[in-house]
Amino acid sequence: xxxxxxxxxxxxxxxxxxxxxxxxxxxxxxxxxxxxxxxxxxxxxxxxxxxxxxxxxxxxxxxxxxxxxxxxxxxxxxxxxxxxxxxxxxxxxxxxxxxxxxxxxxxxxxxxxxxxxxxxxxxxxxxxxxxxxxxxxxxxxxxxxxxxxxxxxxxxxxxxxxxxxxxxxxxxxxxxxxxxxxxxxxxxxxxxxxxxxxxxxxxxxxxxxxxxxxxxxxxxxxxxxxxxxxxxxxxxxxxxxxxxxxxxxxxxxxxxxxxxxxxxxxxxxxxxxxxxxxxxxxxxxxxxxxxxxxxxxxxxxxxxxxxxxxxxxxxxxxxxxxxxxxxxxxxxxxxxxxxxxxxxxxxxxxxxxxxxxxxxxxxxxxxxxxxxxxxxxxxxxxxxxxxxxxxxxxxxxxxxxxxxxxxxxxxxxxxxxxxxxxxxxxxxxxxxxxxxxxxxxxxxxxxxxxxxxxxxxxxxxxxxxxxxxxxxxxxxxxxxxxxxxxxxxxxxxxxxxxxxxxxxxxxxxxxxxxxxxxxxxxxxxxxxxxxxxxxxxxxxxxxxxxxxxxxxxxxxxxxxxxxxxxxxxxxxxxxxxxxxxxxxxxxxxxxxxxxxxxxxxxxxxxxxxxxxxxxxxxxxxxxxxxxxxxxxxxxxxxxxxxxxxxxxxxxxxxxxxxxxxxxxxxxxxxxxxxxxx
Length: 677
Ligand code: G3I
Known about the structure:
Number of strands: 33
Oligomer: single chain
Bound molecules: ligand G3I
Strand content: 25-35%
């Protein structure tokens, strides 16, 4: 149930329009058109301008003085003033319980001004939540400079992912105890667009090759994100909740709240799990590198022994807890520095323990779950110097018996870099080692340098990105025998680490947009012929044949063709068709029928016969029936019309036994098509 939402005075522009938009969104048919539906207008849940002279539910976080004030107002004649603060964390606070629904992304906004005469400070909008009395603190905004001479807006977003018994938004300062005015606080959300249910599942399209995964967070395993995730992905990697700072924030004090939720979700939904990550130079609490007296460790034998015992304990506990559930572990993350002669990053781990930190971690992981496959994971492995150093390290450690089963390639790349050839070399380099390989954190930034920043992603970048996904996934598909899974670093563009790295700007590196709708990047993987302008824009796709192309194939309809208008053999056939088996394995195969209409078609049925008893299991981009050997596919709503010289492609999964001969007698609207090789 959605929490009860209402509107207050001093906020007029949205009002009824928002309500109508919200109900319209609910009424949208589940089968969305392509391109994706427009986002609805925001619905305002809370709006506080303090014009009625009351504090409208606002108070302090402890003993501050809270009252409405006419000394300053951003709009109207009143604001809320909080004075008597004795700590920087104190400030105006309001409960959000009952106003917030789990899994919905809310936009929070508050205007802030310090009381007259107060020195400038930095402020932020935060949220405190408590579950069974245990508090957690989230920041909805970064730190923003505020003054006593003008109003500054603090605005950011917040998604509640946990069951809570206390939930409060508040304004605090980074330091100091200035008196604070706030005004025109609002909390709103944009009604979610339903996810598309009439497009192929990425996991089905890639099933012949490898599982396809995504990084998850507490907010992506609930609500519509969870629906999208389950529809398209077969594997997950918790993005942060298995890291050391999350699982063992203090020595021997383990915390598995978010990790358990992620693992339980994956198990319940039949998803493979990649565990990420046990040993990393980031997100490791400082206590790990503190000596027995609590001082930063120096490289002594005693400290090395202490550090290795901490690794042993941490790895055993975390891997042991998820024994039999987490199939792959990134035991070590980013240990290579290609600028060092020996190729090893000078991390605290290495400085104190040398290579023994790796030996201990891998052996402890193997002991804790002998069935788990253990990976060493790194970025830029497409760069020759880096992959060579990684190769040397993995060969040396495996030669001495360290249980490294696989190499993880992060693949944080962009629309221009790296080349297909470099990516291919990244995979082939490790084949002679006999290790498993996985792509572990793939995303494709729309930016090619730090100077660029787009408020919304330009269409041409998104199209280019679609082809990049096609081409790079093509590399992985070609090497599927060496790659046991491919994982993307996120589900949709509404939540990506690239929004704040390497600079703060909106990026769009994933398959689904901020409204969870399929992008050209999705089609690049699923069906590149559906990337906008595919016939002409693709750098490598062959151009669509023209109407004047001379037919060279067999144009006669066969005896078994269905009745109806047929090609006489005098005029050129009205269509051309290519049947391709895109992947085949014992008992199953994936195929594609690509038809080019040489004159416009509005509504179509594509028919063929399977010569060897093949049976369709699943088909996308149309609706299929199979009677004996005869298959009939009718168009989907979005590909009903095929303009002249344009193509429609249907893809499918099917089973076979003995022989898997090509489909025969392919017709479009009962007319035989020219068969292309
Ligand atoms: O959870 C807190 C939240 O309570 C607080 O309000 C908020 C304020 O900024 O921070 C939240 O924590 C952030 C966390 O992500 C969860 O969103 C941390 O500040 C932020 O540093 C952390 O970033 C993570 C990053 O690793 C840390 O370096 C990214 O989410 C995560 O995607 C990223 O993943 C790494 C891989 O592990 C290794 N390879 C590179 C990849 C990208 O950096």
